[in-house]
Amino acid sequence: MTETQKIYDVVLIGGGIMSATLGTLISKLEPSWSIKLIERLDDVALESSNPWNNAGTGHAALCELNYTPETNAVIDTTKALAINEQYTVSRQFWASLVESGELPDPSAFINDVPHMTFVRGEANVDYLRRRYELLRAEPLFATMEYTEDPAVIFEWAPALMVGRDKTEKVAATRVASGTDVDFGSLTRQLVQGLIDNGAVVRLGTEVAGLRQQRDGVWQVATRVASGPEQGRKNVTRARFVFVGAGGGALPLLQKARIPEIRGYGGFPISGQFYRTDNPDVVAKHHAKVYGKALVGAPPMSVPHLDTRIVDGKPALMFGPYAGFSPKYLKTGSFLDLFRSLRLHNIVPMLAVAKDNFDLVSYLVGQLLATPKKKFTELQSFFPEADPADWRLITAGQRVQVMKRDPKKGGVLQMGTEVVAKADGTIAGLLGASPGASVAVPVMVDLLKKCFPARVDEWTPRLTELVPTYGTRVNDSQEKADEVLAKTGAALRLGKAQRHQ
């Protein structure tokens, strides 16, 4: 049987953490299924899953204030609780793979880095205090600490306080059991596991078209994007297709002509980070510290000073600084945005622009910001930062999803969203933060949506991989402590004492 004649059970488009996670789940649930992964670049995890293209936080809502919005003096913790619960699912899945020997060195992708929130000014201190009081009562947040004492903040993160005005009102929270995740390393390990189990991986291969046959099978038209066979065309057939191409997912789902993608648009946001690898500077700070977002800033633009551990080496990043590029991928085309425009998504996109003037103003302000102004923002976190030690790096592209709304015409969609054809034969993932950190529960939900008839059969195996599958860890302190302790031990993470 030739490659063109073969019908794969699953084709994964995109070599990032989402495809790697979904492929790994399927290989555990259906070991006999044939899997093919197609990536347009010459290696996996070079776009959004690359550690220098994203914040790498291991988003657990422990420190990100955009997950606890305040409206009319009421703080809503719903999203923070949901994201932390989701991240706990991801941790359990990774721990299962470590215990089975499939991820033999967890320190290659996950490490202890405390998660902190740091705010300045009376109003922000009051907000953080009230947020802490709400979250400390939740089992998964029980180790959170709070202080308004500059001396304690200095103990937690000295770089935040050295050189700061002693009269400035400040406050911070800390969860010592936070993590840093290198999703690039994790993706490569998962993809290697797929290859070891018989999956086919095609790198340097671009998907040119998607068409469903009358029998339901998808034809995935490809062309070689690089190398000696550049330009060679091929067709891969599949019973199920997942489009996990990051910012490139929207155009591919449009090419597939599925009705469910109608009304969806995407606005690309680029960005930059300051980065330092100077060991003397890096040694002054070991934490992920998030602040308060500027008015109108999108979720992925919350300022943060991050300790990163990539290939075993620590570094610091600060940002992001938003920018604009019409590309949907860092290595994409300047025509991406314009090619995605359709009659059915122009109105929703215009409606979002009209209703989100603060966002537009924020982006314009960021584009006009001088290097001096950008570095001043870094110094608001790290007062003694020296420009000689830091350099600007270009971050990955983020595509902010907009979709049709019957009342407003269009709404800005936060987070990630699965878009699937009604027959369950093709699905794609749109959106950004919290993204990679919740890859496992998002991909489990995708499987349930596309293969509803198999869910009952898969439940025992899913429960082996994620022991709390189908339940909530945050329902009891005993359960939360047990899960965090077990996954921490498997992933070789440190221990934190619960707040008393």
Automatic annotation (TrEMBL):
Keywords annotated in UniProt: FAD, Flavoprotein, Membrane, Oxidoreductase, Transmembrane, Transmembrane helix, Tricarboxylic acid cycle
Example of a GO biological process term: tricarboxylic acid cycle
Catalytic activity, reaction form: (S)-malate + a quinone = a quinol + oxaloacetate
One Pfam family named in its UniProt record: Mqo
EC assignment: 1.1.5.4
Single GO MF descriptor: (S)-2-hydroxyglutarate dehydrogenase activity
Cofactors: FAD
Pathway annotation: Carbohydrate metabolism; tricarboxylic acid cycle; oxaloacetate from (S)-malate (quinone route): step 1/1
Transmembrane segments: 7-26
Family, as annotated: Belongs to the MQO family.
PANTHER family: L-2-HYDROXYGLUTARATE DEHYDROGENASE, MITOCHONDRIAL
Annotated protein name in UniProt: Probable malate:quinone oxidoreductase
Species in which this protein is naturally found: Pseudoclavibacter endophyticus
Top-level taxonomy: Bacteria, Bacillati, Actinomycetota, Actinomycetes, Micrococcales
Record gene name: mqo
